[in-house]
Design a protein that fits this description.
Blueprint lengths: L1 E2 L5 E2 L5 H13 L17 H9 L11
Antiparallel strand pairs: 1-2
């Protein structure tokens, strides 16, 4: 959990890729939903993907023993 500028606590929202993965999982389990086509209203655009790439968490390297 993180704190906001006013000192209160704020939960961090899942990111773009987490939302896409969750929807793909729901579709795979038969929700009846469909993914939006690129360019459709409400679909993420190139700017959204660029922003998500900038905030992406880097994977920690594993050390072999």
């Amino acid at each position: 959990m993180t704190t906001d500028a006013k000192g209160g606590s704020a939960k961090k929202k899942p990111g773009l890729y987490a939302n896409i993965q969750a929807k793909q999982d729901r579709i795979a389990h038969g929700s009846g939903e469909k993914m939006r086509k690129p360019g459709a209203e409400g679909a993420p655009d190139a700017k959204a993907f660029e922003k998500a790439a900038k905030t992406e968490k880097t994977a920690k390297k594993r050390t072999s023993r």
